[in-house]
C-alpha cells in the first residue's frame, strides 16, 4: 500500500557543518546513518521533553528532515536559533518532493522506518494511493510513536519507548539538548510511563487523557498520542503509567467509558 503523507514537511539540510550540527541537536547518532537510510530522532528541549520526533534521512550524502507539518515551524525556529555561526541551512522542499508512506511495500529507493512500514521520497505525484487511515492503522500496529501539536513537550523519550533497542535515542553519542535528563533516567532511574496499545469503543483523539478511577496521581495516568478508528472501535497508542496498567481505565473524565490494554 502507498499513502500520501501530506501532513509531513520535508526539509533539505545543506552546508559543510550539516552533520556536526544535527549531531549536536538530535537524540540519535547521526554519524551512523548510511546513504539511503532513515533514522528516527527526538528533538528535545532542555528538560528532556520531546518537542518533535524527526525522521533524519541521508540520500547521496545530503540530509533531509521529515517533520509533522504542524511542528515544522517550531523545529526550524529552534534549529536556526542554535546554529549561530555554523555553516548549515534549512530549506523547506515540501512543494517539490512528495512523501509517501509504504505498508508491506518495497519500491526502488524506499527507506525502512520500522517493521513493515517505510517511506518513499519522490518528485513524481502518484495516483495509486490508499486512504491515510491505512497508515494510521499500520503505525498503531507497529507501535510507532508520534508527537503532535497537542502532545509536544509532554514526554521524555523513554515514555514513548524510543530508548528500546535504540529506536530513537543513542546513549553513546555526544551532548544534545536534554541529554543529561534522558541519560540520567536511562542509567539511574526507571521510566514511570511507557508506550502501550489500547482499544476502546469510544471516540478518542490525540491529546485525550486516560484516567484511573481513584488514582492519587495529580496527573492523568496516560495521554493518547496516536489513534486509528476501525469499525466501532478505536485502536490507540498512549504513554501510560506502568504502575497503573492493570487498573480499570476510562477516557478523560467520563467514568462510563473504558479502554482495554492490547499489549504490555
Can you characterise this structure?
The chain has 264 residues and is of the alpha+beta class. It contains 4 helices and 15 strands. The strands form 3 sheets. It has a 6-stranded antiparallel β-barrel with strand order 10-13-12-11-14-15. The radius of gyration is 19 Å and the shape is globular. The model has no long low-confidence stretch (mean pLDDT 95).
How would you concisely characterize the structure shown here?
By secondary structure, this protein is of the alpha+beta class. 16% of the residues lie in helices and 37% in strands.
Share of residues in strands: 35-45%
> How much helicity do the residues have?
10-25%
Assembly state here? single chain
Q: Main sheet?
A: 6 strands, antiparallel, barrel
- Whole-number mean pLDDT: 95
Summing up helix and strand content along with how strands pair, one would put the structural category as alpha+beta
Strand order of the largest sheet: 10-13-12-11-14-15
CATH topology of the largest domain, which one?
Alpha-Beta Plaits
Determine the number of helices (DSSP H or I, runs of at least 4 residues): 4
Number of domains: 2
Topology diagram in text:
Blueprint: E1 2-4, E2 8-14, H1 18-25, E3 37-44, E4 50-59, E5 62-68, H2 69-83, E6 89-92, E7 98-103, E8 111-114, E9 117-122, H3 132-141, H4 179-188, E10 193-200, E11 209-212, E12 222-230, E13 233-241, E14 249-251, E15 254-263
Antiparallel strand pairs: 1-7, 2-5, 2-6, 3-4, 4-5, 7-9, 8-9, 10-13, 10-15, 11-12, 11-14, 12-13, 14-15
Amino acid at each position: 500500500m502507498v499513502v500520501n503523507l501530506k501532513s509531513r514537511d520535508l526539509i533539505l539540510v545543506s552546508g559543510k557543518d550539516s552533520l556536526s550540527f544535527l549531531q549536536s541537536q538530535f537524540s540519535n547518532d547521526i554519524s551512523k546513518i548510511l546513504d539511503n537510510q532513515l533514522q528516527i530522532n527526538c528533538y528535545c528541549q532542555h528538560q528532556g521533553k520531546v518537542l518533535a520526533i524527526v525522521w533524519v534521512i541521508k540520500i547521496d550524502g545530503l540530509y533531509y528532515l521529515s517533520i509533522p507539518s504542524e511542528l515544522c515551524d517550531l523545529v526550524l525556529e529552534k534549529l536556526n536559533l542554535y546554529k549561530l555561526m555554523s555553516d548549515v541551512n534549512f530549506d523547506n522542499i515540501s512543494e517539490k518532493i512528495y512523501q509517501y508512506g509504504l505498508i508491506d511495500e518495497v519500491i526502488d529507493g524506499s527507506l525502512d522506518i520500522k517493521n513493515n512500514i517505510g517511506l518513499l521520497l519522490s518528485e513524481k505525484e502518484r495516483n495509486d494511493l490508499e486512504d491515510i487511515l491505512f497508515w494510521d492503522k499500520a503505525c498503531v500496529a507497529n507501535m510507532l510513536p508520534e508527537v503532535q501539536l497537542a502532545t509536544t513537550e509532554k514526554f521524555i523519550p523513554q515514555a514513548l519507548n524510543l530508548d528500546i533497542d535504540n529506536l530513537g535515542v543513542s546513549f553513546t553519542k555526544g551532548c544534545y539538548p536534554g541529554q543529561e535528563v534522558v541519560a540520567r533516567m536511562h542509567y539511574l532511574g526507571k521510566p514511570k510511563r511507557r508506550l502501550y496499545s489500547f482499544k476502546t469503543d469510544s471516540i478518542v483523539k490525540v491529546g485525550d487523557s486516560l484516567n484511573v478511577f481513584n488514582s492519587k496521581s495529580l496527573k492523568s495516568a496516560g495521554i493518547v498520542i496516536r489513534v486509528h478508528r476501525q469499525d466501532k472501535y478505536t485502536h490507540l497508542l498512549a504513554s501510560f503509567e506502568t504502575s497503573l496498567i492493570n487498573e480499570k481505565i476510562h477516557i478523560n473524565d467520563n467514568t462510563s467509558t473504558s479502554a482495554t490494554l492490547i499489549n504490555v
